[in-house]
Design a protein that fits this description.
By secondary structure, the protein is α+β, with helices and mostly antiparallel strands. It has one domain: 3-Layer(aba) Sandwich (Glutaredoxin). The chain is built from eight helices and six strands; from the N terminus they run H-H-H-E-H-H-E-E-E-H-E-E-H-H. The chain has a four-stranded mixed sheet with strand order 2-1-5-6. A hairpin with a 5-residue loop joins strand 5 and strand 6. Helix 7 crosses helix 8. The radius of gyration is 21 Å and the shape is globular. It starts with a helix and ends with a helix.
């Protein structure tokens, strides 16, 4: 009798495991589904953002060897809900902080990605996510990986809905967390 119970429990656990794998959330490559393609001219990208009705531009400063950048790409930027929200509200580009590729900055100056990162934006650690308004003015900087999908979505809402004009992100997060705990 005990062996039949063990077999039944093993079968049930196997079915649950298979079921969770079948219905696991789909993830998509952030390189093609999160980041926009660019020719490296941020002035043109601002114009495109304006034309498309976006709220601004998001630059993701990264480094190939950065484990936190990889974690963001593997667990946050690859989520369809994140990709959909951010692509709807922002033009989004990566900047290699050690890159020698030339690019055009928001003011029309030609620089390497490295100089744009270190000299123009004072980026020293990665990842750094910097949001710019449609005039190319920095409106918020977030250094480090977010705690997860929820916090990253809150960050996008914080900028897209203009909350950055009246409060700090830490206050906004507290309000969102409190509301999430109180909802049924």
């Amino acid at each position: 009798m005990l062996s039949w119970i063990r077999v039944a429990v093993c079968l049930l656990l196997t079915l649950l495991l298979l079921d969770s794998q079948v219905f696991a959330a789909e993830t998509r490559d952030p390189g093609t589904h999160f980041f926009d393609e660019t020719w490296g001219d941020l002035q043109e990208e601002l114009e495109t953002a304006r034309t498309e009705g976006k709220k601004g531009v998001l630059l993701f400063f990264e480094l190939d060897e950065c484990p936190f950048c990889h974690r963001m790409k593997r667990s946050v930027l690859n989520q369809p809900e994140v990709q959909k929200y951010f692509r709807a509200h922002f033009r989004i580009f990566t900047i290699d902080i050690e890159g020698d590729v030339e690019m055009v900055g928001f003011q029309g100056n030609v620089v390497t990605q490295k100089d744009f990162s270190f000299k123009a934006n004072r980026v020293r650690a990665t990842p750094v996510m910097v949001f710019y308004d449609l005039d190319g003015k920095e409106v918020m900087r977030y250094t480090g990986a977010t705690s997860g999908v929820e916090e990253f979505l809150w960050l996008g809402e914080f900028i897209a809905e203009g909350h950055y004009k009246t409060m700090r992100f830490t206050k906004y997060k507290r309000q969102k967390a409190r509301a999430a705990r109180q909802s049924p």
